[in-house]
Amino acid sequence: MSNTLTQPPAVGLGLWKIANDQAAQAVETAIEIGYRHLDSASDYGNEAFSGEGIKAAIDKKIASRDELWVTSKLWNTNHRSEHVRGACERSLRDLKVDYLDLYLIHFPISLKYVDPQCRYPAGWFYNPDAPIPKMEVDSVPIRETWEAMQELVALGLVRNIGVSNFNISLIRDILSYATIRPSVLQVESHPYLVQPKLLRYCQQEAIHMTAFSPLGAPSYVSIGMAKEADSVLTEPTVLRIAEEVGCTPAQAVLAWGIQRGTSIIPKTTRPERLKENLDARNFALSAEQMQRMQSLDQNRRFNDPGVFCEQAFGNFYPIYE
Ligand SMILES: NC(=O)c1ccc[n+]([C@@H]2O[C@H](COP(=O)([O-])OP(=O)(O)OC[C@H]3O[C@@H](n4cnc5c(N)ncnc54)[C@H](OP(=O)(O)O)[C@@H]3O)[C@@H](O)[C@H]2O)c1
To answer: How far is the CA of 15 from the centre of ligand 1 (A)?
Structure first.
């Protein structure tokens, strides 16, 4: 049977920050529980381990390759046309699949090429061992990268291409020359960062939107980019909606994300949370509850290169303003 998935399933497993020694088991368990969508990236450094989980699940016939939606992302150091195919092929090899359902340009940020033989994944610093490590920007037109992404579709290596962390103006620019349109935009979105205009624009252009960090702050506490108190999961409105609906606060937030038309890719390795998050598909919020959730919007972004590039990599590099 050929692949009938034309867009990512509503709930996926996010693989960022899953430790190498947990990734294979987490992926296999997730597929066993019913996940059919995996969100990976070369930058996460765990693709070879996640690939073990994908392979095990397919070998054990828990799911066939056709039933899975596997996303990966092109890292910032590989934006030049001559590096795009090699980067994609490395992700394919590591993930142990012969095509990706979706390949995204991870950020609209081009960094100087780093040979994978020297360091993989390359990360943000050009040379982390330098006395003063620096993030070295390369000026690559997005058109060059996009045209190389289109080639991957022609080669059968990927079925869909898209972008992540792009704003509307950059997407409009791509649409002006694309022979293959972006299928998906992946951006941060949760009740504190609703992005209604971005979602409306994507719906108008038939570009599917995937919400990353759909639970908001919790992902960023351990890396010093948010505080426990920033969590939307303890927000009284969320607690009340969860009680009304008869679900957990995380499920209420995730159900809101699904119901507004985004796919969501929450990360966890705990089997009970994997199930809890997938089960968010089974809860419906009323129009009034949807509105109350949306009213929590603070336009609060936790994952902002305009902040973290300067703090962590010494380079002021805003992209949304
Ligand atoms: N394109 C991009 O630039 C980009 C950027 C960021 C993320 N992403 C993708 O989006 C995925 C998800 O984003 P994220 O990992 O930043 O954030 P997230 O999935 O919203 O949140 C993960 C955090 O929430 C906790 N958690 C998970 N399920 C929970 C539940 N049911 N109840 C309470 N807490 C729960 C997790 O803890 P435990 O792990 O301890 O359960 C973890 O600390 C990533 O893994 C990655 O695939 C993409």
So the answer is: 8
